Amino acid sequence: MGEDIVLFLDENGAPAALRDRCCHRTAKLSKGWCDAGALVCGYHGWTYAASGDVVRIPQHDSSRELPKHSTPAYHCVERYGYAWVALDDPLMPLFDIPEDGAPGYRRILQFYDRWNTAPLRLMENSFDNAHFSFVHKSTFGDMAQPKPSSYDLTETDYGFCATTLVEILNPPAGHRVTGTTEP
């Protein structure tokens, strides 16, 4: 969304998100390191809390009050194995996935892969389950099952929810992606 952010774990182990720029010399905070739940800028060592406030300036005279400096902090929560960030106040709470953790379901975490494509093309690819049989034939696709599964669409306040169940194969090459050795 055009904003570089840095994610780290705060002192309670919860994810935190800040603008990826130090307020001092605009160095990328993502080039720094974490120390006891705070983020240390790798340029001059200025240290940030999850709130975005500077909590330590190594060069500052400790006998004087620390000046108030900060970088923008964003709303950030962990759910479903991901860190979710809102750059402004969230319009609504995160959606609920009742199947998450329920018996008979498992979560398969996606990998990070940069696609230089239009967002609508990316969405089309995600919803096009007819391509699985062929494009993914070496991992989970089943060429003997080329007919796509139907979707159940449910309109929501924020758009829609599309649900489908796709029968897949799970050869040894796919075990890392599916997270199981079960067929």
Write the layout of secondary structure elements.
Elements: E1 5-9, E2 15-19, E3 33-35, E4 38-40, E5 47-48, E6 54-56, E7 73-79, E8 82-86, H1 119-127, H2 132-135, E9 152-156, E10 159-163, H3 175-178
Antiparallel strand pairs: 1-2, 2-7, 3-4, 4-5, 5-6, 7-8, 9-10
Strand content: 15-25%
Taking pLDDT < 50 over at least 5 consecutive residues as the criterion, the unreliable ranges are none
**Envelope shape:** elongated
How many structural domains are formed by the residues? 2
Which structural class is indicated by helix and strand composition? mainly beta
Ends: how far apart? 39 Å
Strand line-up in the sheet with most strands: 1-2-7-8
Please provide the count of β strands.
10
- Count of alpha and pi helical runs: 3
Major beta sheet, specifics? Answer: 4 strands, antiparallel
Mean pLDDT: 90
Radius of gyration: 22 Å
Order of helices and strands: EEEEEEEEHHEEH
Task: Report on the architecture of this protein.
This protein is mainly β. Helix content is 9%, strand content 23%. The protein has 2 domains: 5-86, Rieske [2Fe-2S] iron-sulphur domain (Rieske Iron-sulfur Protein, 3-layer Sandwich); 96-183, no CATH class. The protein has a 4-stranded antiparallel sheet with strand order 1-2-7-8, with no helix packed on it. It has a 4-stranded antiparallel sheet with strand order 3-4-5-6, with no helix packed on it. It has a two-stranded antiparallel ribbon with strand order 9-10. It is elongated and about 75 Å long. The two termini are 39 Å apart. The mean pLDDT is 90.
